[in-house]
Amino acid sequence: MKILLVEDEKQFANSIKEYIEKENYVVEIAYDFWEAKEKIELSNYDCILLDIMLPSGSGLDLIPDIHEFQPKCGIIVITAKNTIDDRVIGLELGADDYITKPFHLAELNARIKAVLRRRFFDGKKVINFNEIQIDIDNREIFVNQNKIDLTKREYEIFMFLFNNKNRLITKDAIIEYVWGDDSNNFDNFDFIYTHIKNLRKKLINSGCKDYIQSIYGLGYKFNEI
Amino acid sequence: MKILLVEDEKQFANSIKEYIEKENYVVEIAYDFWEAKEKIELSNYDCILLDIMLPSGSGLDLIPDIHEFQPKCGIIVITAKNTIDDRVIGLELGADDYITKPFHLAELNARIKAVLRRRFFDGKKVINFNEIQIDIDNREIFVNQNKIDLTKREYEIFMFLFNNKNRLITKDAIIEYVWGDDSNNFDNFDFIYTHIKNLRKKLINSGCKDYIQSIYGLGYKFNEI
DNA sequence: AAAAAACTTCATAATTTATTTAGATTTATA
DNA sequence: TATAAATCTAAATAAATTATGAAGTTTTTT
């Protein structure tokens, strides 16, 4: 899953990024208000970590934008203990959770996990969908109880499509989502084709229906039916 | 849907074009006032992006022309922050929205979507018309809940006729609308006949009434009744 | 450092869509 | 009704997109 971290202190931001990347999230950092705004409008995130004290504006002002452009996305507000605002505590501004600096990375991680679980998986740890079972915490996918080994990229692509059932996902969106900031390096879709092919093969070989539909000229779609 | 971008800075114009073409709009650029005026009077657009600072005149002076020749067309004014005029902000000049440079492409895109939705679809995301349902965002058309797969061209032609119910649409207009600047390459209507035929067949096969009437020697019309 | 796994690139094949062609049908007009 | 022009249709060809297997890199694991 993909996370945006909005935080102006570079060193602090990087250490958070490093930590949560180890937890297998794709992480991007926006170092100021406007960079964050652009990313929110252009890219897809599943959770946004929002420091509200930014040099160029309050992170809180990004919340309406997040709701508009990414209604499914979770929001965790990062705030210093002394600047904390009652509205944040009450989460009246539309965030899912907040955490006060300083905090332990493991705590942040736990909260991200909880928010994502609530937002995307109905609070469950294991998702059931027809013949498919997904163990979120372990990033494992089963077809009729038989585990299939997906690589990181395959898993990310699968989950992106799965979490957007019946919606057209363009190849550009997939690249953006899975490769994050590195997505500019690509000038063709060959590797997408390959990953999709391998992903499909693994699923189908385990007796899974082919839910992934190619939409000519546009992208892919996970068909619920 | 088709968009005209009136903007003299070539590079800027091209990057906008590239971006919104990815969103499946047909895009034409007019690089100066008079080129814009000609296009507005001759062609069909659903939305016009109007930079008001043009070397050959103010884009605002094109607005009456747009109203006269294309009453359904949306207008979004592009303006530099410092040259902004109160009348623009109040939209008293007849625009639907405005955006100040610099802006994010995603923001422009969101505004285009909103203006088109307001102008053409009554603000709705899904259109219902007798047995037809149209999911604008996903570019999907259903007949009595059964999805019919239209190709890009078929979809564009269908929407053009649909959005101009009971009005005669000439074959030239269709070519102009769907193929944009490339429309000069065609010297006969054979391919239109084919696309219309295939479109009709898909619709009728799904149990849809044949709303598309041929008007001999002139073009086609989407009959509401 | 070697081996294994994962990722990307490349060449080629398969598929889907777009356009052209040619013949059949319909319409307008005389 | 005869004729020409316009339109419709299906089939053939061309163009664009996607799928595939294999080769070459890079990254990770041992």
What is the succession of H and E elements of chain A? EHEHEEEHEHEHEEEEHEHHEE
Give, in spatial order, the strands making up the sheet with the most strands of chain A.
2-1-3-6-7
Fraction of helical residues of chain A:
25-40%
- Beta-strand content of chain A: 15-25%
Main structural class of chain A: alpha/beta
By DSSP (H or I, 4+ residues per run), the number of helices of chain A equals 8
How would you sum up the major sheet of chain A?
Answer: 5 strands, parallel
Low-confidence segments of chain A: none
Whole-Å distance between the termini of chain A? 24 Å
The pair of chains with the biggest contact is: A-B, 14 and 11 residues
Say how many strands of chain A there are.
Answer: 14
Quick summary:
The structure is a homodimer of 225-residue chains. Chain A is an alpha/beta fold and 225 residues long. Chain A is built from 8 helices and 14 strands.
Give the secondary structure arrangement, pairings included:
Two copies of one chain form a homodimer.
Chain A: E1 2-6, H1 10-22, E2 26-30, H2 33-42, E3 47-51, E4 53-54, E5 57-58, H3 63-69, E6 74-80, H4 86-89, E7 97-101, H5 105-121, E8 126-129, E9 132-135, E10 140-143, E11 146-148, H6 152-162, E12 169-170, H7 171-179, H8 190-205, E13 212-215, E14 219-222
Parallel strand pairs in A: 1-2, 1-3, 3-6, 6-7
Antiparallel strand pairs in A: 4-5, 8-9, 9-10, 10-11, 12-14, 13-14
Chain A binds a DNA duplex (30 and 30 nucleotides) through residues 151-154, 186, 188-197, 200, 214, 216-217.
